[in-house]
Design goal:
5-stranded parallel β-sheet; FAD/NAD(P)-binding domain; DNA polymerase, domain 1; 3 domains; 24 strands; alpha+beta
Length: 605
């Protein structure tokens, strides 16, 4: 029993819990973090990597807002790459292999070093709710902790059940117990739960792999840093290796599908479509002769290799037999077998854009509990929940980014507006304004917010402003300097002309670094498209400003269909813009709703 009243209690210390608690504590508010294992802070329970397509954009955004994920990756990374460089800059994406253990230790130290943060070990089994407001939690041991706000970031632990072939046992992660009891408390509070599933591949011993037969993949030189705050990234990079499944592997899997809990009907939860198990790949893509397998080291001081692309819950003997048919893995020694895990999750349509529950005030949800997948998606939600707790503590309005401002806002808006029937994963294709949401300009879009919250220092913010000043000054120089009758600015717009080519041919000189040159050249070459998307974004903002009162009676809106009314009542959209993105809401429904709102507004005048 404790009498201390915290500003916030964060339940769980995964990627969401870390970002939420650090943000609140760094803004001067006392935070309690309760986790089932203080030695498993921000554990990478699946692949040892951060970033990738769209996910890398999110990490850059987390960093621009003052989060920790980018800094942690730069400090513990073992390989860094910029993906999609053969394509347009809107889909370039940073990705890094991380040392899993060092990443955990880095984040644990970050929590323990924060003066306003208290880290305790304990399993929360009950929410303390009174008069529709959450004011604390009770642990399995009977201890009660009180806080003005509670953020649940429980990952895959709620009623977790692990499957390996015919075997299954309770577990929140490999060799870790599940969280039992909290699901019942949520249901008693009127929170709906669903059952989801995810999985992980086997880990194999690096000495048992025939490396000489595999395709080597090195990191980029120089390595591209994740964080805008990383001054210089000097790292000895480790290679990854590429191989593939084949028809022999597929035959083994097909023959033993009846032993897979996924296909034997033992797993009831819905799994991730975009990160399927190898069983799903073989069944759903029968014409594919092979699937890519990416061998990733789990750290500098471990012999474990992560078999990316071979997520499975097949029996141990079948996992071994199938792996041994893969080129280069004929003698592979499995250190840890792959498994699937089922867990309880909260359909996110029950949340506001602030990630606060619509039913229970001061109760927030972030991370995998919100039906998402991925460390990056979790970290982003944790930061948003943390910022909104800060806003409430300061007596300010909720903090909600628009869809044209960040991938983070696309993530949150998709979740609370449309919901999801499978673990949600971010893709660049989900963003309407992706040319505005490049990985290289996250600081331009978001660092101002981080500075205002207090998570970005004045020194960092001043450096950012100086950088933008240099770029803008250089644009003016390019407009003023001419070759014949055309400015250098117009020359750079030509596909065949690069900024560096002008310098190389002694037609221009500058003092910008490579990152600044990339931003400058991108903004010049894509200026027309950028202006077009900015125009579309302004139209989008108009719809977002047309707010819908919380007290609206949808039954009083004449002409709207039954399905539309049911969905509007369930989602309770905050604006016409959000209502327009709810599946099943027609343009006719929106017009009738807009007319009704205008009439009600006139009646009140």
């Amino acid at each position: 029993m404790t009498t201390k009243n915290f500003a916030a209690i964060v339940v769980g210390a995964g990627h969401a819990g870390v970002e939420a608690s650090l943000a609140i504590a760094r803004c001067g508010f006392p935070v309690l973090v309760l986790t089932m294992d203080t030695k498993a802070i921000a554990r990478m329970s699946c692949n040892p990597a951060i970033g990738g397509l769209a996910k890398g954009h999110i990490v850059r955004e987390i960093d621009a807002l003052g989060g920790e994920m980018g800094l942690a990756t730069d400090a513990t990374g073992i390989q860094f790459r910029m993906l999609n460089k053969s394509k347009g800059p809107a889909v370039w994406a940073p990705r890094a292999q991380a040392d899993k253990k060092q990443y955990e230790l880095y984040m644990k130290k970050a929590l323990e070093s924060e003066k306003n943060l208290t880290l305790k070990q304990g399993q929360v089994v009950e929410l303390l709710v009174q008069d529709g407001k959450c004011h604390g939690v009770r642990t399995k041991e009977g201890d009660e902790f009180f806080g003005e706000h509670v953020i649940l970031t429980t990952g895959t632990f709620l009623q977790g059940l692990i499957h390996v072939g015919e075997e299954h046992h309770p577990g929140g992660r490999r060799d870790e117990p599940p969280a039992v009891g909290l699901s019942d408390s949520l249901r008693q509070c009127g929170i709906e739960l669903v059952r989801f599933k995810t999985g992980t591949p086997p880990r194999i011993h690096q000495k048992s792999i025939r490396w000489e037969n595999l395709e080597k993949q090195d990191g980029d030189e120089p390595p591209p840093a994740f964080s805008y705050r990383t001054k210089k990234l000097a790292v000895e990079q480790m290679p990854c290796y590429l191989t593939h499944t084949n028809e022999a592997v597929h035959d083994i899997i097909r023959t033993n599908l009846h032993r897979s809990p996924l296909y034997a009907g033992k797993i009831l939860g819905v799994g991730p479509r975009y990160c399927p198990s190898v069983e799903d790949k073989v069944v759903k893509f029968p014409n594919r002769k092979s699937h890519q397998i990416y061998l990733e080291p789990e750290g500098r001081n471990t012999d474990e290799i992560y078999v990316n692309g071979f997520s499975t819950s097949l029996p141990k003997d079948i996992q071994k037999e199938a792996l041994h048919r893969i080129f280069g893995l004929e003698d592979a020694e499995i250190v840890k077998f792959g498994y699937a895990i089922e867990y309880d999750a909260v359909p996110p349509t029950q949340l506001r854009h602030s990630l606060e529950s619509k039913k229970i005030q001061n109760l927030f949800f972030a991370g995998q509990i919100n039906c998402t997948s991925g460390y990056e998606e979790a970290g982003a939600q944790g930061l948003m929940a943390g910022f909104n707790v800060i806003r409430k503590l300061r007596g300010e309005q909720e903090f909600v980014l628009e869809r044209n401002e960040a991938y983070i806002s696309v993530l949150v808006d998709d979740l609370v507006t449309c919901g999801t029937n499978e673990p949600y994963r971010m893709f660049t294709s989900r963003a309407e304004f992706r040319l505005l949401l490049r990985q290289d300009n996250a600081d331009q879009r978001l660092m101002n917010y981080g500075y205002k919250f207090g998570t970005i220092s004045k020194e960092t913010y001043d450096e950012f402003k100086n950088k933008m000043g240099r770029i803008e000054k250089e644009k003016e120089n390019l407009r003023e300097n001419k070759i014949k009758n055309d400015s250098l600015y117009k020359y750079i717009k030509r596909p065949e002309i690069s900024y560096k080519a002008l310098i190389k041919n002694n037609l221009h000189s500058c003092n910008l670094n490579d990152d600044e040159i990339h931003i400058l050249e991108t903004e010049i070459k894509y200026e027309g498209y950028i202006l077009q998307q900015q125009s579309e974004a302004k139209k989008f903002e108009k719809l977002e400003k047309k707010k819908i009162p919380e007290t609206i009676d949808y039954d009083a809106v004449k002409g709207i269909g039954r399905e539309a009314k049911e969905k509007l009542k369930k989602i309770k959209p905050e604006s016409i813009g959000q209502a327009s993105r709810i599946p099943g809401i027609s343009s006719c429904d929106l017009s009738l709703l807009a007319v009704y709102l205008r009439k009600k507004a006139k009646d009140l005048q």
